[in-house]
Each structure stands twice: as structure tokens, then as C-alpha cells.
Amino acid sequence: MRARLREAIPFRSRWRFRQVSLGEETEPKMAKLRILSHQGDTTVDWDIERAEVGDPEALDAVKEAERIFEEHKAKGATAFKVAPGETAKKLERFDKTAEQIVMVPRVAGG
Question: CA nearest 99: which of 40, 49, 53?
Fold first, then answer.
């Protein structure tokens, strides 16, 4: 019986736990649009939670990010929704709730 118990208990745990304290203020949930170019990358950030409740400054940032998104899509750029631990997903339309959107310019071959 004792040998079976030892075999059932893993030697090393693969679980990782994150400690969360109640009552502490959390960081705002920020979203980011990254536009890659030959000059590096440009970012536009907005606070998702403030935009959801109608904060004018956050809504202006979302509108600007959407304008830039549409401008680069019209030039042939491809957009991807990127999230930690997930496969990147191609976007055809702007997603204001995405944690991060990466815009890749059209690459000319020859």
C-alpha cells in the first residue's frame, strides 16, 4: 500500500499559484495596438475598463486606435490579436477588448 501511495504523488508539481490579496488596488486592464514598421513599432494604449464605462479620455483613445487600425488595414497591413499562452488570431475588424493587437505591414517580395 505504501509503494502505491508514493507512485501516485508526483515528485515535482507543475502547478504554479499566484497569491491574490483582497482589498488591494489592481492595475487597470490596458489594451495595446502595436504597429510594426521599418522605423520600429508604435503603440496606442487604452484602458478597457474605463472605456466600457464611457470615460471620454478612454473612448477617445479607442477611437484613435480604431482609426489607425483602419488606416493600416487599407494600406494592406495584417492584424493579429495576441494573448499570452494563446495562438495569435488574425483580425479583420478592430477589437477594442483585445489585450494586444499587432499590425504587420504588407511585405513586398520580388
Answer: 49
